[in-house]
Specification:
Layout: E1 3-4, E2 8-11, E3 21-24, H1 26-35, E4 43-47, E5 53-62, E6 65-74, E7 83-89, H2 93-105, E8 110-114, H3 125-145, E9 153-157, E10 168-172, E11 178-179, H4 180-183, E12 192-197, H5 205-213, E13 217-220, H6 228-240
Parallel strand pairs: 2-4, 7-8, 7-12, 8-9, 10-12, 10-13, 11-13
Antiparallel strand pairs: 1-2, 3-6, 4-5, 5-6
Helix pairs in contact: 2-3, 2-6
Length: 243
């Protein structure tokens, strides 16, 4: 849900224009009214993921939704200059949610959650839509809280063979041929990269062969083995130090 400091900041999946009324969905209206105790006329910051953010004032908050009047636009960009895409191999649901939350806060541009040979988490077709909705909500809340101006994309991939590759590709592996200290300077000038993270049991040999065929390079991030939910946030934090 939306998060506040001196002002509330919420994401609206709709075009926003100065001088016009913007509709607030029922769940967000409930939060603003009953949790944050906002009243008509009070300020709220809006963003729609298309760049920048808008200052607005509440005009109505009710059980069925609400509205606010858009008053001004601020052309601000809080995104990383390097687009970092995350492929997170499916693992326990709570670990996936941790990755989505923390990696969004740290600037990830997109997520592909993929089933791999050692994945312990399976997503039946009849539960796909509801699970993706939950995951997308986690991403949006993290973007609201961290004051991002874009919302990362999210996709489910039933297998590694179905992932989409963007930019220079690396698969995190303890015995990787590439070592972080040797390649980190290259990230400073790269337009985008994609990082593949294995499940709890790591990538299988077949997984690594699949990724190699897709031109992924294996990357070692140090002498210790990280938990699957730690890897993406740790890499993103490290990347931000060089871009």
């Amino acid at each position: 849900m939306s998060h506040c400091r001196t002002k509330c900041r919420i994401y609206l999946d709709t075009p926003l224009s100065i001088g016009e009324e913007a509709a607030i969905p029922a769940d967000q209206a409930h939060y603003l009214r009953h949790v944050m105790r906002l009243q008509n006329g009070e300020a709220v910051t809006l963003f729609n993921g298309e760049g920048g953010e808008f200052e607005a004032s509440v005009t109505h908050l009710g059980k069925q939704g609400g509205s606010c009047r858009v008053e001004s636009f601020r052309d601000v960009n809080r995104e990383m200059p390097l687009r970092v895409h995350i492929i997170q191999c499916a693992n326990k649901s709570e670990k996936i949610e941790t990755v989505l939350q923390k990696a969004t806060e740290l600037g990830a541009s997109s997520f592909q959650v993929a089933s791999s040979e050692r994945s312990q988490f399976k997503l039946p077709a009849n539960k796909l839509e509801s699970r993706l909705t939950r995951w997308q909500r986690i991403i949006i809340e993290a973007a609201e809280q961290s004051e991002r101006t874009a919302i990362p994309d999210l996709a489910w991939r039933p297998s590694l063979q179905q992932i989409e590759v963007h930019g220079a590709a690396f698969a995190l592996h303890p015995e990787g041929a590439a070592h972080w200290p040797a390649i980190r300077a290259d990230f400073a000038t790269a337009p985008e990269i994609i990082l593949a993270i294995g499940p709890e049991g790591g990538f299988s040999q077949r997984d690594l062969e699949t990724l190699e065929q897709m031109e992924f390079k294996s990357l070692s991030f140090g002498p210790r083995v990280m938990r699957t939910e730690t890897a993406a946030p740790a890499l993103l934090a490290a990347i931000q130090s060089v871009v």
